[in-house]
Write a structure and sequence with these properties.
four-stranded antiparallel β-sheet, globular, 15 strands, five-stranded antiparallel β-sheet
């Protein structure tokens, strides 16, 4: 990944604009996510809205394997799918949870965010899983301030998740974001306080707990993208892009 950079106030303004669109897409899809809707329909709505804002879907065409670039504008990961689920004609069913990840590029700067939504009536386990994952995101964000270390974020997420018997995915991490969708620093969801890169005012990072109800082990489907839990347990994913300041971190995808 490109190295971490301290963003100027002008660059943060541009990142904030991309993040605004990310947040608006997630709010739009929240109103559309329901029983019987296909994830491909959600993808179409997201792309249409992103382009209406004179922006581009950051995920479409992303990847290092030119024979298998990511084909959609959002990631839609259902139940045991952790991240990178490819939208399809699969319909959402009562009792499902679906994590929707959105990336936007505008004026050469990126924004990135994700939320997990419930479909109809979900189990008590899935309810608690979603709540824990969302809470852990904010526990991590609280630590994202100048003078702290990256793994202060990681440790806060891990502590909150593991306290209730869930696990954080270890093969995938949060990341810096700016001129590139993925920049340094890598932001794991597990780690030891007081270690990792020093956080400085002006850093923009995407914090994204991926929380499994079972073990943290994951596997990749034959499509080369969809990551799912190895044991088939459900998973929830929440993400915000934030800017580090000398005071409270500012959430940009809100």
């Amino acid at each position: 990944m490109p190295k971490a950079t301290i963003k100027s106030s002008h660059e943060i303004t541009l990142i904030r604009e991309s993040c605004r669109i990310v947040a608006e897409v997630l709010r739009l899809l929240k109103g559309m996510v329901r029983i019987g809707v296909t994830t491909k329909e959600l993808d179409h709505l997201a792309e249409e809205y992103i382009r209406s804002q004179q922006a581009e879907p950051a995920f479409k065409g992303y990847g290092t394997d030119k024979q298998n670039l990511y084909p959609a504008s959002i990631c839609a990961s259902i139940n045991d799918e952790v991240v990178h689920g490819i939208p399809s004609n699969r319909t959402l069913q009562d009792g499902d949870i679906v994590a929707i990840d959105v990336g936007v590029k505008k004026n050469e700067f990126y924004g990135d965010g994700a939320w997990t939504f419930q479909i109809g009536e979900i189990s008590e386990e899935k309810t608690r899983l979603m709540q824990t994952a969302e809470e852990s995101l904010y526990k991590g964000i609280e630590q994202a301030r100048a003078g702290n270390r990256v793994h202060d974020i990681s440790a806060a997420v891990q502590k909150h998740v593991e306290a209730v018997g869930y696990s954080v995915v270890r093969d995938l991490v949060g990341h810096g974001v700016g001129r590139y969708l993925h920049e340094e620093p890598a932001v794991p969801n597990f780690g030891k306080r007081g270690t990792g890169m020093l956080l400085q005012s002006g850093m923009t990072i995407a914090i994204e707990p991926m929380v499994n109800a079972g073990a943290y082990d994951v596997k990749v489907d034959s499509d080369g993208w969809t990551v799912r839990t190895y044991d088939g347990s459900p998973s929830a994913h929440f993400e915000h892009t934030i800017v580090v300041t000398n005071h409270e971190p500012e959430i940009l995808t809100i």
